[in-house]
Amino acid sequence: MDQEILSLAGEKTADKLQELLQAVKEDDLANLLQNQAVKGKAAGALLRAIFKGSPCSEEAGALRRLKIYIRSIQLVESGDLQKEVASEILGLLMVEVHNFPGPLLVELASEFVSVIKEGRLKNGKSLELLPIILTTLAAKKENVAYGKGELSGEECKKQLINTLCSGRWDQQYVIQLTSMFKDVPLAAEEVEFVTEKVLRMFSKLNLQEIPPLVYQLLVFSSKGNRKKALEGIITFFNELDKQHNEEQSGDELLDLVTVPAGELRHVEGTVILHTVFAIKLDCELGRELLKHFKTRQQGDFSNNTCPFSIALLLSITRIKRFEEQKTSIVKSFKDLQLLQGSKFLQNLVPHRSCVSTLILEVVKNSVHSWDHVTQGLVELGFILMDSYGPKKILDGKAIETSSCLSKKPTQHACKLGADILLETFKIHEMIRQEILEQVFNRVVTRASSPISHFLDLLSNIIMYAPLVLQSCSAKVTETFDYLSFLPLQTVQGLLKAVQPLLKVSMSVRDSLILVLRKAMFASQLDARKAAVAGFLLLLKNFKVLGSLSSSQCSQSIGASQVHVDVHSRYNSVANETFCLEIMDSLRRCLGQQADVRLILYEGFYDVLRRNSQLANSIMQTLLSQLKQYYEPKPDVLPPLKLEACILTQGDRICLQEPLDYLLCCVQHCLAWCKSKVMPPQQEKEEEEEEGVYQDLEDLLESITSRMIKSELEDFELDKSADFSQSTCVGIKNSICASLVMGVCEVLIEYNFSISNFSKNKFEEVLSLFMCYKKLSDILNEKAGKGKTKVANKTNDSFLSMKFVSDLLTALFRVLIWRYTSIPTSVEDSGKKEKGKSISLLCLEGLQKIFSAVQQFFQPKIQHFLRALDATGEEGEEVEGSVTHRAAFQIRQFQRSLLNLLSSQEEDFNGKEALLLVTVLSNLSKLLEPSSPQFVQMLSWTSKICKENSQEDASFCKGLMNLLFSLHVLYKSPVILLRDLSQDIHGHLGDIDEDVEMEKTNHFAMVNLRTAAPTVCLLVLSQAEKVLEEVDWLITKLKGQVSQEMLSEEASSQATLPNHPIEKAIIMQLGTLLTFFHELVQTALPSGSCVDILLKDLCKMYTILTALVRYYLQVCQSSRGIPKNMEKLVKLSGSHLTPLCYSFISYIQNKRSQSLKYTGEKKKGKTAAVATAMARVLRETKPIPNLIFAIEQYEKFLIHLSKKSKVNLMQHMKLSTSRDFKIKGNILDMVLREEEEDDDDEGTASEHEGQDKEPAKKRRKK
């Protein structure tokens, strides 16, 4: 039969073939085809013959074709055919589809859909045919019977796709089905059906099947609906991450059903890879992804970002620039800071994830083959460090902040950049070389900018893996070549950072030594200083056998310690030779400039502590150097040859020997050697060293006794001496004075350290201090006269931290006991010095100690407070929390402040009161805001402000600042602001002199003396912060509404949670409006109060406009305007806008009068008049901005009225004139000093229409 069909098919006409096929039953024909196909015998040729003999123009032929098509599809799906045969059959079926009539195409497509829905697919190979069937069907223009009616081909296709997407898909064919749809022309609605169906399938698939499906979905999304596809993918993995984290932190039994973390991260990595490829094919997909993140950042009350979404964003940095995202990171830190500082916002906004935690989690996850993310991480890290590193200030030093609490968002961003790079370096070996190269390049090329953050990063990297860096030793040695050209601070930081590497790499060490030896003889001073600093570092870190262990030193080597110890043990002899060679080189430096010697003296002490076997060499060097400037005859005064320390070259005089630094070095080294090195050693060496120590002690003792006997005249530094910087003698005397004061300081510490608290030694210490003080007073007196320029730059103190801490430890108990036990008022007035009593000095000391501990020793605060409590009366609180201990200290200082406030007015000491408030402010920061002690502190401060009236402006400012800082952590301060504004209005009077004021007295601290500018500027500053918070909330709400409008189905439900936030915003603005209502009626003095009030009013209207625009957005989602919003608009129209115009008129009248008065007072002085005019122009600059802000507010109110069908403009009265320029004729009048005429009143009467109504409003008092 098959041979017959094939032979007839070869004829030119198909008539006989048609007759033969009609005679054969369709089932037999299908079976014949099946047998041939399974055997692999010419199935393609047979199929072509059947199609030739079954023309679609005849009904029988078309039905036969349909039967053959259905059987062929079953054959292909069965898996019984060879691959080549199946492909040939599918190819023929595809070619012939377009010949089918419409009804049969529908039947064929419906059969396909039912096969898919019923799960009858075996291998999915036949799915290649479905896109062609659907495409052909959509192209049919005639109506086709479908179901009970008739539909066009396009509508039939739409119904079939709808049926297919609403049915069940077998898991193993989801990817093929998704791929199939990309070849079908689809309308936007159909694309949405398919996208939603595929996204729903995500949760039903195994994790390993998701990445290829994601890729197919992203390729499919090029037809449209990219946003939904991306959001669906991100949301799915976000939820997976959340589930995983919850299960990990939950019950251990859940681990049995949890997806392994490694598998999830690998899948996410593959998805990121597929997304990157998809974006390369479709750039619009990348733009949509960036747009998605931007929208999320605006309205993220819930945590919209997750590690996966951040990783996705980082992965496209090679395709899209990432610069914009750095501002988003800083903005996240700012948002977090804003939230932490406001209880009002904390109550409204749920807890937010810290962006640092999320990004560092991405770094941690990137170990699981997230190769496309690592480059983005490195780029982000360097962008953050470059953009937000420490900034250079006038004296060239960087601004550094050590306290975590006081760090700015930009500093947090810089630290995050460093953390990203360090963690990426640890995890990814491939990227290490690039990170190191970029860090070294920045260290070398940015020498003029602060690079401490890069040096810290380099130090952390090398500490982590010094052996890894051996592979990068070429880059390190290349960097050494630039040492001579780098600033000293950079050289020291760089060498300290690479120090562990010097221990494990001999080649790096040798190249450094070569560079330093060359630099030692360079012509540039900076190069020689760098060489000395480098050699000192080498001496510190290459120990000679027998040196004290590193545990006795201040610095540890960390991760490289194992290599260091092994290295130093086996090479101790070589180390000794090496170190002694360096010492010889350094001795030559003692003949160089003072700057080089100074570095040497500052470094010797650290070298001695780390490498104690060099003690003899160092002490001998110092002794021989000191003897050059020591007067050996015991009866000669002064004991030091100061002339020899100064170099005179013609007219140029400079310091040759920093004798004070030399003596300081001797004192520290001697003290350390006696305490650490003196215990038993070899006898010969011991005797030799003891001889050196004894000589130095005798020298110091002799210098001390003779310095005490010396008068200032002996140094030629008495009151008659010249200290000006314009003469050679003056410069020389200034240098000598600085040396004498430094020597006194060093001797004070030396004698204190050996005194063992003996009376005689303390008397010597006091005598030395008196010598220091006399000289200091003379210098200050000369500087104070101001006739001659005196070098009064404050030198660094030579007193060590140990000495200061020992002294403070002894004094601190005395300070706190004395201040809390002896009130200032009963103190003997004879003990005052320059207006400061001893008790006041005690309090000042306490205040500085509290500030220093809080700023620099944050982790040790608990120990500090415990030490204080141990001496207090309430011993039972020793085991309490920081809050309890801080509260106990607060109570003591509260009592002191109350005693001071209850004293007579003439006995009130404003400085003491301010210091007490500062101490209380410092201690109150340690209280937990949710604790009863915090609430108690707030109510106490509020009571003090309400019941005490003091005219001291500084005290008032300090106390009010304390009140506000506490209040914002408890609740919003708007009610407080309103009450204070009423008090200010009552004391300063009204801008309309005819209105009688009824004074309110909410806070007695507000009085005529403090109301303006002190309290007024404070309340305006706080109002500005409240406006900033409200603006932040409105921005977030607008971002949310934008998202909701894009996803229609969520809009009705998602807006409900915003109601409490909207209500809070309106309440805040309403209360602030009453605050401004009071201040714009107040007769404020010209200057900063008026300027800042105008600027804040401008902000107020800008934020009201933002709120109106938000409701314009909301109205689009069929939600009306709340009643309280209508009330707010009404209040602004009746209680603020008219009064603003009246206030502007008041300012302009006042300033024109001031200008006229200046002109009359200074007739003929054109410069004075010009200055006054410039001031008036500057001060009136905010007025046009305010008018514009009011007009913008009213403009958008009109739009909102139209959209909401609510007349919001009924309470607004538009002003009659909007011109607020300074009139030219008035300026001419002032310049020509003409008499005042009618034109003069133009500015004052500009807003006459607004002046009448507000006057009625103000008479409410």
Beta-strand residue percentage: under 5%
The percent range for helix content is 55-70%
Query: Which structural class do you get from the secondary structure elements?
Result: mainly alpha
Q: Extract low-pLDDT stretches.
A: 251-257, 399-405, 549-570, 787-793, 828-834, 872-879, 1049-1056, 1234-1261
The Rg value, from CA coordinates, equals 43 Å
Mean pLDDT: 80
Biggest pleated-sheet summary: 2 strands, antiparallel
How many distinct helices? 53
Find the count of extended strands (DSSP E, 2+ residues).
4
Give, in spatial order, the strands making up the sheet with the most strands.
1-2
Write up what this structure looks like:
It comes from Felis catus (Cat). InterPro entries: FANCI, FANCI_HD1, FANCI_HD2, FANCI_S1, FANCI_S1-cap, FANCI_S2, FANCI_S3, FANCI_S4. This is FA complementation group I. By secondary structure, the protein is mostly helical. The chain has a two-stranded antiparallel sheet with strand order 1-2. It has a two-stranded antiparallel ribbon with strand order 3-4. Strand 1 and strand 2 form a beta hairpin. Helix 8 runs antiparallel to helix 9. The radius of gyration is 43 Å and the shape is flat. The C terminus is likely disordered.
